[in-house]
Each structure stands twice: as structure tokens, then as C-alpha cells.
Design goal:
The structure is a homotrimer of 273-residue chains. Chain A is α/β, with parallel strands linked by helices. The first copy, chain A, is built from eleven helices and eleven strands. In chain A, a hairpin with a 2-residue loop joins strand 6 and strand 7. The radius of gyration of chain A is 17 Å and the shape is globular. The interface between A and B is medium-sized, with 33 and 34 residues.
């Protein structure tokens, strides 16, 4: 059951090293605390190896990358691989610039990732060297819909097989797959797209979930997606007249803070294909 | 009517590239989403030209500038000029340090800006190479008041003529002018000064407004100022006992999220001089 | 009385230069505004000396340090010393990496700090060149408890004597000491540890308090600690069902915004040893 995965986060309190963008970093930290993990941020090449050594997981998010932080990503990733730590890649904006695409592809080649999480356009860019990305949001033409679901599931499983990573594609319908099995998840609300960084927050939280459940990585990644989506539903149910995306951001993090195994198991909407 | 300007933002969903400070960047992103735009942040010189190419507007804010991001500002600005994109300058802290003053002046000389937005001290620094700036807030001695209004309007129009940009000076009374026409705006509340980054948020939003209304830049910039000020009034009306500046920040962004053309047209308080 | 210290902040509106991490910087700025100060952020070596010159206090926080910002810390610190400004050190993560430990120790050797504030593990690292730091949170083994209070008070006073700084160690029980006198403070709530950056926020606010009360540095630092802890208590009392750490963050800053001298004097829980 997915609920057990969040219980393990709260019990193990995984320390997660984040090399992440400065846009949403505060929310990533607060979401990690909300779900029961503990965050630390460091991108300086001279600092990252020591920091990642004391952590249980590493979350690499390439938004607002720069030359120095890119160097930090490779150093931290290799060290985390050496130590057998969980490593996650969030290829923010892959496809939107040559630097981002090249960096994401090179990271995927040189680092072993336990999980890769992005929107469909970013993941297609990684997989195919193509796909269109409209900034940091997925292109409508790429969207996972009921109509494209079969082929999307096959695509995600195939990328998971090729990379040996759990692949998580999030959007209106979320897909979380390894080579054999794909969680098709229908939690969440469209209004979450009106808050900056719900994807970044999910990547941070997912790193904690997988680090705290090393023997059930696929299930843990799916549990993180369901937690985020369900928190989006619960948070929305608490919105009042006049509230907007800023309050919604707070409500979602609050809902994660209050999430327990029973709520998650009852509210998670998924099928396995 | 100003209301049409926000309708156009929601209809066109302009993608705005922000090179902005790390203090208020999250709020800038959420305000852009709240008003109907879409944000992307990038300051790395090797990344900015690709990123700005896929956007409709570029918001250059010099707060927390560094050598690398300054290089990014010039590269992105020149590329955006080449492509005919809307470009805005927010000279945060011009007058407070030599680096900030020099960078702002050099940007103004080498990049064609559609809009320059700042507080009166920053704008005076740009215009006259003088003015006193108390950190990132305007100096009281520079303030636009009913007493200094005539000369302030003349000053702003004259700078607009000289630069060919729309010039927006925000404070207790806001002025938004081109060479011929000046909106004198009296929306907003003094308590907005107790929240960090309402100016940065406005610059991001203004870039989206002008990008979505290319044939009415002056009006679009004025509409953004009225939207921010009116959101400050609406947000304040929702404050409860015990609330303070952190909740007020959320309430203002929420009010932008819920702003529609009719509310804006009814609530905007301006005269044209 | 401690209440007078916050009155002085609101009266003098100290401008505080912050070289601080990008994780919690927005909250630091809003807390500084909430307590009556004014924030400015700058870490670029070419910018920091000018910026610190116009300020009354300098807050150096080494979280997310990088080569350039480290250079900025030394330049700003030396300039602030020259000018007789208040300077505070927050050694975030000292003990967690060689770079952080070395940077904190070198800063302490080369800059004269009016105040050093951290958790017990960070402060022990500074004092003894040892101590275990679990990321950015204190190690349980180091905790200040009723059982270890006598020795902890002696330790903090001794470090204050050795460094000539006020030393503030925050945790379940907070200690704020100079060589002769130690405030033992019991405000606050454990749930504050579930919000990222309450320590960073306190460091920013403490810089403003000490800058506004130059003749009563120890008392001012203790007043800042009591303000933060009491705001945590007041903020918690306003939490509603379903609220979590994100709303709690807002409530704490709101409570600081509304704090007055009488509330502080009535709510402060401390003894002097």
C-alpha cells in the first residue's frame, strides 16, 4: 500500500540534498519538511560532495542552472552514485534551450538515476532528443490524454527500461513506471499549474520517498505523486472566496504536512498497467 | 479601457523571461501566473539567448546582480531587441552602489527598453546621474507628492521622451508616462511597502501586460500598475485581526489571480495629464 | 526591558545588509520588514562594500555559500568593521562540510562579529573544531536540555569571552550570552523546526535589533530571540484545523509584524544566569 511509503518517510526522516533552482527552492524545502524529510541545499562544487555524503538522497533540478552549479551536479551525482544514495533528475526546461537539453542528456549519460521526473515535453526531449517545450510547461501537443494513454504508457516503460530508472511523467494524468509496470494516476487539479514549482516540490518530496523506501522505489515514487495530487485536492477543498494561487500554495503544503497513510490510501486514484 | 489589457494577458498567456533577484523571484513567478502570464527564469549567459527567444517579453531586474548575471542581462536584452520582444528594466538599487548605477545606466544605453519601472530615487539616478537611494526603497526627499506632482509629471515625460521608453515611477502616487501622456494613479496602500518585492512583482506583471498588448504599451503599463494597486486594496480588505505582512503578500497575489476586466475598470483610480 | 528594544527597531528602521542563502532569503526580508527594519541583499564582491556602507548592520549567513559570495562575505565584513557597523555571523551547516566549517572559522578569525548565532552543533563546531551536524539541523546528541544546562551556559559564556561576541545558541532552550551574563530563554514551539529558515529569519531580525540598540547588544539579541519564540507561540495559537507548516510560516511573520513592546515584555520567558 502507498500509505506505508509516507509512514517510512516520517519514520526515517531522510536528509535530502537539493541542487535546485532559486525560484522554487523555499517551497521545496518546506514540502520536504511537510512530508517528514529534512532538506539541505548546496550547489558549490567545493561543497557538494561533503554535503551529499551526509544525506540519503540527492535531488538534481536543472532550473536556473549555471556553469558552477552544473559542475556541482556532476560532482554530487557521481559521489552519490559511489555511496549508493538515491538520485533523482528533474530536467526543468529540457528542450527549451541547448544548455538545458545538453546538460540533462549528459547527466543521464554519466550519472545513474533512480528516478527521472518531468513533464511530458521534458521527458520526450530526454528520450528522443526532440519534443517541444514551451518554457517550463509542457506543450499541449505532447499531453498525455485518455486518447494517447496506451502509447504514452508504452513510451514511459520503454524509457524506464532503457535508462534503468523509474520514470515519472506528471501532468493531467501522471505516469510512473519501471520497465514492467506503470502507475496511471489521476489525482490532482488543473489549478495546480497556476502555482510555480509544484513539479519541483514533487521532485524534492519524491527523493525523500524513494530514499525512505529503498526496496520499493516504483511504489514510493507513485506514492509521492499521489501525495502531491491528493494534497492538491484537499488544499483546493479548503479554499474560500477570494483566495487564489498564493493561498493555494500554502494549502497544498499544509495538506502534505497533515497527510497520513490512511488518508493517502483512501484518496490515491491509480491503476496499474 | 484598462480592463481589456488584463483580458489580453489571460487570452495570450505571454511567456516572460525574467532575469531577476533571488529575493523575490518566487513571488514574481506566482504573480505572473496569477495575472495570466507564464514565467521562466534564467540568468546564465550560455542559456539566456535560447530562453528569451521562445518568450514574448523580457524582464531585467538588477537586484542581487552578479558578474555572470550582468553578462546574461546584456546578452538577453540584445537578443530580445533583435527579435522585437518587449523588454523592461527594473533598476533595483540604482544609486545605492556604483555597480548597480553603472549597470543600469549601461543597460539603458545599450538596450532598447519598452518600459523602465522603478521608484523615484532609482529613476532619478538613471535620469540625472544623481538622486539619493536609501537601499532599495525610495528616499523620502525624492517622493512624488501632490505638491511636487506637476514637476514630477514633467520629469517623467521628459525621461520618456529622451529614452523612447514608457517610464513608470511607483510610490504613494504612481506615474506612468510616455513623451506625451502621463497616467497619474492613486491605487494601492502604504502597507504594501511592508512586503518585500511588490515592485519586483509589478515589473514581472507589467512585462506580461505590455507583451500581451503590443499596440497599447502605455495603457498596458498603466493597467499593470492599477492591477497591483487595486489588488493591494482588495487584499487589505480581506485581512483579519492578527494578520500581518506575510498574509498580506498572499492576499495581494490572490487578488491578482481573481482580477477581471470589470473589477479593474471599476477600481482603477487614475487621471491623465 | 526587552520591549524597548523592539520599539527602537521600529523607531530607527535599521537598514540591514544580508549576504544570505537563496533558500530562505525571501522570509528573511519579510521578517526584517515585519519587525520594523529594512532589508537589502547583495553578495557580489564588486557590490557589497558600497551596499554595506549605506546600511547599519550586516548579516552574514553561510548557507548556499559559493566562491563568489564567500569573497563578498569577507569584503563586506571588513568594510562593516571599518565603519563600526553591527555584524552578525550565522554559520549555517558548519560541521556539515569542510568548506562551511573552514569558511565559518576563517570569518570568525578575520572579522569582528558583534553576534554569532547558530544551533548548538554549529556553535560547537566553531568553538571546538568538532561537534556533529546533521545537515542544517542540530544533532540530538548536542542538544541543550535541562540536564546539560549548567555546562551549556558555561560553554556559551566562555565562547563569548573568547570571541568578544554575543553568542546565541537557539534550540528548545535558547541561550544568549556575553562573557558575564546568559539569557536562558524558553519561548517558542517545537513545530517551528518544521518550517525552513526560522533560524535564518532570526539572524536577520537579530541584526536589526542589535543595530537599533547599539548600547545594549546582549539585551537586544535576547529580545530578538524572545520575539521570534513568542511569535511562534502566538502564530501557533491562530492555527486552524487543516493548517500546516506553510500557514504556520505566515502566522509567525504576521505575529512579528504585530508585536509590540508590551506584548513582548509580557510574553518573554527568560531567566538570567
Amino acid at each position: 500500500m502507498l500509505g506505508k511509503c509516507i509512514d517510512n518517510v516520517r519514520k526515517n526522516v531522510p536528509l535530502v540534498h537539493n541542487i535546485t533552482n532559486y525560484v522554487t527552492v523555499n517551497d521545496v524545502a518546506n514540502v520536504l519538511l511537510a512530508c517528514g524529510g529534512s532538506p539541505i541545499m548546496s550547489d558549490e562544487p567545493d561543497d557538494v560532495e561533503d554535503i551529499t555524503t551526509i544525506c540519503g538522497g540527492l535531488n538534481i533540478n536543472i532550473g536556473t542552472l549555471n556553469k558552477s552549479s552544473i559542475e556541482g551536479m556532476f560532482l554530487a551525482g557521481k559521489k552519490a552514485n559511489e555511496l549508493g544514495h538515491v538520485v533523482l533528475l528533474d530536467p526543468v526546461g529540457a528542450g527549451a534551450s541547448k544548455l538545458r537539453t545538453d546538460t540533462a542528456v549528459k547527466l543521464l549519460n554519466e550519472i545513474k538515476f533512480d528516478v527521472v521526473r518531468g513533464n511530458i515535453s521534458e521527458i520526450k526531449t530526454l528520450a528522443l532528443g526532440s519534443g517541444t517545450t514551451k518554457g517550463v510547461d509542457a506543450d499541449v501537443a505532447d499531453a498525455v490524454t485518455e486518447e494517447t494513454l496506451d502509447s504514452s504508457v508504452a513510451f514511459v516503460k520503454s524509457l524506464a527500461e532503457k535508462t534503468g530508472s523509474v520514470v515519472a511523467v506528471t501532468g493531467a494524468i501522471d505516469l510512473v513506471a519501471d520497465a514492467d509496470k506503470c502507475y496511471v494516476i489521476r489525482n490532482g487539479r488543473a489549478e495546480m499549474g497556476k502555482i510555480t514549482g509544484t513539479g519541483c516540490q514533487l521532485s524534492g518530496m519524491m527523493t525523500a520517498f524513494v530514499a525512505a523506501n529503498p526496496d520499493a522505489k516504483l511504489e514510493a515514487a507513485a506514492a509521492a505523486v499521489c501525495t502531491m495530487g491528493l494534497a492538491g485536492e484537499i488544499g483546493w477543498s479548503r479554499m474560500q472566496e477570494g483566495d487564489g494561487n498564493s493561498t493555494y500554495r500554502n494549502r497544498i503544503i499544509d495538506a502534505i504536512f497533515n497527510m497520513d497513510a490512511a488518508t493517502l490510501d483512501e484518496g490515491a486514484k491509480f491503476e496499474i498497467r
